[in-house]
Amino acid sequence: MGRLALVTGGSRGIGAAISNGLKAAGYKVAANYAGNDAAAEAFTADTGIPTYKWSVADYDACVAGIQKVEADLGPVEVLVNNAGITRDAMFHKMSREQWQEVIDTNLSGVFNMTHPIWSGMRDRGFGRIINISSINGQKGQAGQANYSAAKAGDLGITKALAQEGAFKGITVNAICPGYIGTEMVRAIPEKVLNEKIIPQIPVGRLGEPEEIARCVAFLASDEAGFITGSTISANGGQFFV
Ligand code: NDP
Protein backbone atom coordinates (compact mmCIF):
# COMPACT_ATOMS: atom_id res chain seq x y z
CA MET A 1 0.00 0.00 0.00
CA GLY A 2 1.09 3.56 -0.67
CA ARG A 3 1.32 6.59 1.53
CA LEU A 4 -1.57 7.69 3.72
CA ALA A 5 -3.51 10.72 2.47
CA LEU A 6 -6.03 12.51 4.69
CA VAL A 7 -8.61 14.62 2.86
CA THR A 8 -10.75 17.05 4.85
CA GLY A 9 -14.31 17.36 3.58
CA GLY A 10 -13.36 14.25 1.64
CA SER A 11 -16.73 12.53 1.38
CA ARG A 12 -18.60 14.95 -0.89
CA GLY A 13 -18.04 17.26 -3.84
CA ILE A 14 -14.49 18.13 -4.82
CA GLY A 15 -13.18 16.33 -1.72
CA ALA A 16 -14.82 13.05 -2.73
CA ALA A 17 -13.22 13.32 -6.18
CA ILE A 18 -9.85 14.01 -4.50
CA SER A 19 -10.24 10.99 -2.19
CA ASN A 20 -11.12 8.78 -5.14
CA GLY A 21 -8.33 10.16 -7.30
CA LEU A 22 -5.71 9.55 -4.61
CA LYS A 23 -7.01 6.03 -3.98
CA ALA A 24 -6.79 5.31 -7.73
CA ALA A 25 -3.20 6.62 -7.65
CA GLY A 26 -2.30 4.02 -5.00
CA TYR A 27 -2.64 5.98 -1.74
CA LYS A 28 -4.32 4.76 1.41
CA VAL A 29 -7.01 7.41 1.95
CA ALA A 30 -8.94 8.64 4.98
CA ALA A 31 -11.76 11.14 4.41
CA ASN A 32 -12.85 13.56 7.11
CA TYR A 33 -16.29 15.20 7.11
CA ALA A 34 -18.32 17.49 9.38
CA GLY A 35 -21.86 16.28 9.87
CA ASN A 36 -23.50 14.72 6.82
CA ASP A 37 -23.46 11.12 8.08
CA ALA A 38 -25.68 9.81 5.28
CA ALA A 39 -23.34 11.12 2.57
CA ALA A 40 -20.31 9.77 4.42
CA GLU A 41 -21.83 6.32 4.87
CA ALA A 42 -22.84 6.15 1.20
CA PHE A 43 -19.35 7.29 0.19
CA THR A 44 -17.66 4.58 2.28
CA ALA A 45 -20.08 1.94 0.98
CA ASP A 46 -19.31 2.97 -2.63
CA THR A 47 -15.57 3.39 -2.38
CA GLY A 48 -14.31 1.46 0.65
CA ILE A 49 -12.63 4.69 1.85
CA PRO A 50 -13.07 5.11 5.63
CA THR A 51 -14.65 8.36 6.85
CA TYR A 52 -13.95 10.20 10.10
CA LYS A 53 -16.24 12.85 11.57
CA TRP A 54 -14.97 16.01 13.22
CA SER A 55 -15.00 19.74 12.54
CA VAL A 56 -11.80 21.27 11.19
CA ALA A 57 -12.89 24.46 12.96
CA ASP A 58 -12.18 22.80 16.34
CA TYR A 59 -8.44 22.40 17.12
CA ASP A 60 -8.89 19.79 19.85
CA ALA A 61 -11.22 17.76 17.64
CA CYS A 62 -8.59 17.84 14.89
CA VAL A 63 -5.89 16.57 17.26
CA ALA A 64 -8.16 13.72 18.44
CA GLY A 65 -9.36 12.92 14.91
CA ILE A 66 -5.84 12.81 13.48
CA GLN A 67 -4.73 10.56 16.37
CA LYS A 68 -7.55 8.14 15.54
CA VAL A 69 -6.74 8.13 11.81
CA GLU A 70 -3.04 7.55 12.52
CA ALA A 71 -3.79 4.76 15.03
CA ASP A 72 -5.94 3.05 12.39
CA LEU A 73 -3.88 3.64 9.26
CA GLY A 74 -0.40 5.01 10.06
CA PRO A 75 1.21 8.45 9.75
CA VAL A 76 -0.42 11.05 7.53
CA GLU A 77 2.04 11.83 4.74
CA VAL A 78 -0.32 13.75 2.45
CA LEU A 79 -2.79 16.27 3.88
CA VAL A 80 -5.40 17.86 1.63
CA ASN A 81 -7.10 20.81 3.34
CA ASN A 82 -10.28 20.84 1.28
CA ALA A 83 -13.13 21.36 3.79
CA GLY A 84 -14.89 24.64 3.19
CA ILE A 85 -18.17 26.49 3.62
CA THR A 86 -19.85 29.63 2.34
CA ARG A 87 -21.99 32.07 4.33
CA ASP A 88 -22.53 34.70 1.65
CA ALA A 89 -23.90 38.18 2.28
CA MET A 90 -23.12 41.68 1.09
CA PHE A 91 -20.79 43.26 3.63
CA HIS A 92 -23.33 45.77 4.99
CA LYS A 93 -25.58 42.81 5.82
CA MET A 94 -22.90 40.34 6.93
CA SER A 95 -23.21 39.26 10.56
CA ARG A 96 -20.23 38.64 12.82
CA GLU A 97 -21.35 35.00 12.94
CA GLN A 98 -21.21 34.70 9.13
CA TRP A 99 -17.73 36.23 9.17
CA GLN A 100 -16.44 34.05 12.01
CA GLU A 101 -17.84 30.72 10.83
CA VAL A 102 -16.14 31.05 7.45
CA ILE A 103 -12.84 32.21 8.96
CA ASP A 104 -12.95 29.38 11.53
CA THR A 105 -13.56 26.66 8.92
CA ASN A 106 -11.82 27.90 5.78
CA LEU A 107 -8.75 29.56 7.32
CA SER A 108 -8.28 28.40 10.93
CA GLY A 109 -9.24 24.92 9.72
CA VAL A 110 -6.02 24.84 7.72
CA PHE A 111 -4.00 25.76 10.82
CA ASN A 112 -5.95 23.31 13.01
CA MET A 113 -5.28 20.39 10.66
CA THR A 114 -1.75 21.21 9.57
CA HIS A 115 -0.28 22.12 12.96
CA PRO A 116 -0.78 18.69 14.62
CA ILE A 117 0.58 16.89 11.52
CA TRP A 118 3.54 19.18 10.81
CA SER A 119 6.03 17.88 13.40
CA GLY A 120 5.59 14.27 12.28
CA MET A 121 6.22 15.27 8.66
CA ARG A 122 9.36 17.17 9.74
CA ASP A 123 10.61 14.19 11.74
CA ARG A 124 10.03 11.79 8.83
CA GLY A 125 11.54 14.19 6.26
CA PHE A 126 8.59 13.97 3.91
CA GLY A 127 5.21 15.61 3.56
CA ARG A 128 2.75 16.99 1.07
CA ILE A 129 0.24 19.66 2.08
CA ILE A 130 -2.28 20.75 -0.54
CA ASN A 131 -4.63 23.60 0.33
CA ILE A 132 -7.82 24.07 -1.67
CA SER A 133 -8.25 27.84 -1.89
CA SER A 134 -10.44 29.54 -4.51
CA ILE A 135 -10.48 31.91 -7.46
CA ASN A 136 -12.38 34.23 -5.11
CA GLY A 137 -9.41 34.30 -2.75
CA GLN A 138 -7.32 35.55 -5.68
CA LYS A 139 -9.65 38.16 -7.16
CA GLY A 140 -12.15 38.87 -4.34
CA GLN A 141 -15.89 38.48 -4.80
CA ALA A 142 -18.77 40.78 -3.87
CA GLY A 143 -20.97 39.06 -1.31
CA GLN A 144 -18.04 36.96 -0.09
CA ALA A 145 -15.82 39.24 2.02
CA ASN A 146 -15.53 36.44 4.59
CA TYR A 147 -14.81 33.70 2.04
CA SER A 148 -12.43 35.83 -0.04
CA ALA A 149 -10.48 36.83 3.09
CA ALA A 150 -10.20 33.24 4.32
CA LYS A 151 -9.20 31.84 0.93
CA ALA A 152 -6.60 34.60 0.44
CA GLY A 153 -5.28 33.69 3.89
CA ASP A 154 -4.92 30.09 2.72
CA LEU A 155 -2.57 31.32 -0.01
CA GLY A 156 -0.53 33.21 2.61
CA ILE A 157 -0.08 30.22 4.91
CA THR A 158 0.78 28.09 1.87
CA LYS A 159 3.70 30.37 0.96
CA ALA A 160 4.94 30.74 4.56
CA LEU A 161 4.87 27.00 5.27
CA ALA A 162 6.49 26.23 1.92
CA GLN A 163 9.52 28.18 3.14
CA GLU A 164 9.52 26.47 6.54
CA GLY A 165 9.01 22.96 5.15
CA ALA A 166 11.31 22.97 2.14
CA PHE A 167 14.48 21.82 3.89
CA LYS A 168 12.51 19.07 5.68
CA GLY A 169 11.12 17.47 2.51
CA ILE A 170 7.68 18.99 2.94
CA THR A 171 6.02 20.74 0.01
CA VAL A 172 3.05 23.05 0.53
CA ASN A 173 0.97 24.14 -2.44
CA ALA A 174 -2.47 25.55 -3.18
CA ILE A 175 -5.08 25.02 -5.83
CA CYS A 176 -7.53 27.77 -6.71
CA PRO A 177 -10.54 26.22 -8.41
CA GLY A 178 -12.92 28.36 -10.41
CA TYR A 179 -16.57 27.37 -10.48
CA ILE A 180 -16.85 23.58 -10.13
CA GLY A 181 -20.15 21.72 -10.46
CA THR A 182 -20.64 20.59 -6.86
CA GLU A 183 -23.54 21.10 -4.45
CA MET A 184 -21.91 24.36 -3.27
CA VAL A 185 -22.22 25.79 -6.79
CA ARG A 186 -25.42 23.99 -7.82
CA ALA A 187 -27.05 25.79 -4.86
CA ILE A 188 -26.70 29.02 -6.88
CA PRO A 189 -30.00 29.70 -8.74
CA GLU A 190 -29.87 28.18 -12.24
CA LYS A 191 -30.70 31.53 -13.86
CA VAL A 192 -27.70 33.16 -12.13
CA LEU A 193 -25.46 30.26 -13.13
CA ASN A 194 -26.53 30.29 -16.79
CA GLU A 195 -26.82 34.03 -17.30
CA LYS A 196 -24.11 35.47 -15.06
CA ILE A 197 -21.53 32.88 -14.06
CA ILE A 198 -21.00 30.52 -16.98
CA PRO A 199 -20.74 33.37 -19.55
CA GLN A 200 -17.72 34.66 -17.54
CA ILE A 201 -15.87 31.35 -17.94
CA PRO A 202 -13.97 31.37 -21.23
CA VAL A 203 -14.14 27.58 -21.69
CA GLY A 204 -17.96 27.93 -21.44
CA ARG A 205 -18.71 25.42 -18.70
CA LEU A 206 -18.30 24.63 -15.01
CA GLY A 207 -15.27 22.59 -14.03
CA GLU A 208 -15.52 18.95 -12.96
CA PRO A 209 -14.40 17.87 -9.46
CA GLU A 210 -12.10 15.32 -11.12
CA GLU A 211 -10.23 18.17 -12.83
CA ILE A 212 -9.23 19.44 -9.37
CA ALA A 213 -8.51 15.91 -8.14
CA ARG A 214 -5.96 15.40 -10.92
CA CYS A 215 -4.09 18.58 -9.83
CA VAL A 216 -4.01 17.23 -6.25
CA ALA A 217 -2.68 13.82 -7.33
CA PHE A 218 0.12 15.53 -9.25
CA LEU A 219 1.11 17.81 -6.35
CA ALA A 220 1.07 14.83 -3.97
CA SER A 221 3.39 12.76 -6.15
CA ASP A 222 7.14 12.32 -5.75
CA GLU A 223 7.50 13.86 -9.24
CA ALA A 224 6.24 17.22 -7.86
CA GLY A 225 9.00 17.48 -5.24
CA PHE A 226 10.48 20.67 -6.75
CA ILE A 227 7.14 22.50 -6.65
CA THR A 228 6.40 24.28 -3.39
CA GLY A 229 4.70 27.54 -2.46
CA SER A 230 2.87 27.42 -5.78
CA THR A 231 -0.72 28.03 -6.72
CA ILE A 232 -2.43 26.15 -9.53
CA SER A 233 -5.32 28.17 -10.94
CA ALA A 234 -7.87 25.74 -12.39
CA ASN A 235 -10.65 28.05 -13.53
CA GLY A 236 -11.36 27.63 -17.24
CA GLY A 237 -9.47 30.83 -18.06
CA GLN A 238 -11.66 33.06 -15.89
CA PHE A 239 -8.83 34.78 -14.02
CA PHE A 240 -5.07 35.02 -14.45
CA VAL A 241 -2.81 35.98 -11.58
P1 NDP B 1 -19.22 20.86 -0.72
O1 NDP B 1 -20.14 21.78 0.02
O2 NDP B 1 -19.75 20.04 -1.84
O3 NDP B 1 -18.52 19.87 0.34
C1 NDP B 1 -17.87 20.44 1.44
C2 NDP B 1 -17.20 19.35 2.24
O4 NDP B 1 -16.53 19.98 3.34
C3 NDP B 1 -18.19 18.36 2.83
O5 NDP B 1 -17.60 17.08 2.85
C4 NDP B 1 -18.39 18.88 4.26
O6 NDP B 1 -18.73 17.86 5.21
C5 NDP B 1 -16.98 19.38 4.54
N1 NDP B 1 -16.96 20.34 5.63
C6 NDP B 1 -17.61 21.53 5.72
N2 NDP B 1 -17.34 22.11 6.92
C7 NDP B 1 -16.49 21.28 7.56
C8 NDP B 1 -15.88 21.30 8.83
N3 NDP B 1 -16.04 22.32 9.69
N4 NDP B 1 -15.11 20.25 9.19
C9 NDP B 1 -14.92 19.20 8.36
N5 NDP B 1 -15.48 19.12 7.13
C10 NDP B 1 -16.25 20.15 6.75
O7 NDP B 1 -18.01 21.78 -1.18
P2 NDP B 1 -17.13 21.73 -2.52
O8 NDP B 1 -16.74 20.34 -2.84
O9 NDP B 1 -17.80 22.55 -3.54
O10 NDP B 1 -15.84 22.57 -2.04
C11 NDP B 1 -14.67 21.93 -1.56
C12 NDP B 1 -13.61 22.99 -1.37
O11 NDP B 1 -13.34 23.63 -2.62
C13 NDP B 1 -14.01 24.09 -0.39
O12 NDP B 1 -12.89 24.50 0.37
C14 NDP B 1 -14.45 25.22 -1.32
O13 NDP B 1 -14.33 26.46 -0.69
C15 NDP B 1 -13.47 25.03 -2.47
N6 NDP B 1 -13.92 25.61 -3.72
C16 NDP B 1 -15.06 25.16 -4.32
C17 NDP B 1 -15.46 25.70 -5.52
C18 NDP B 1 -16.65 25.21 -6.25
O14 NDP B 1 -16.93 25.77 -7.32
N7 NDP B 1 -17.36 24.21 -5.79
C19 NDP B 1 -14.71 26.78 -6.16
C20 NDP B 1 -13.51 27.16 -5.44
C21 NDP B 1 -13.16 26.58 -4.26
P3 NDP B 1 -20.25 17.29 5.30
O15 NDP B 1 -20.40 16.37 4.11
O16 NDP B 1 -20.29 16.57 6.60
O17 NDP B 1 -21.14 18.49 5.22
Automatic annotation (TrEMBL):
**This enzyme's EC code(s):** 1.1.1.36
**Domain of life per record:** Bacteria
Q: Name one GO biological process term.
A: monocarboxylic acid metabolic process
A matching Pfam family: adh_short_C2
EC class (word) = oxidoreductase
| One cellular component term from this protein's GO annotations in UniProt | cytoplasm
User: Which UniProt keywords are present, listed alphabetically?
Assistant: Oxidoreductase
Under the GO molecular function aspect, what terms does this record hold?
Answer: acetoacetyl-CoA reductase activity
Q: Start and end of every Ketoreductase domain?
A: 3-170
NCBIfam families attached here? AcAcCoA_reduct, PRK12824.1, PRK12826.1-2
Similarity annotation: Belongs to the short-chain dehydrogenases/reductases (SDR) family.
UniProt protein name: Acetoacetyl-CoA reductase
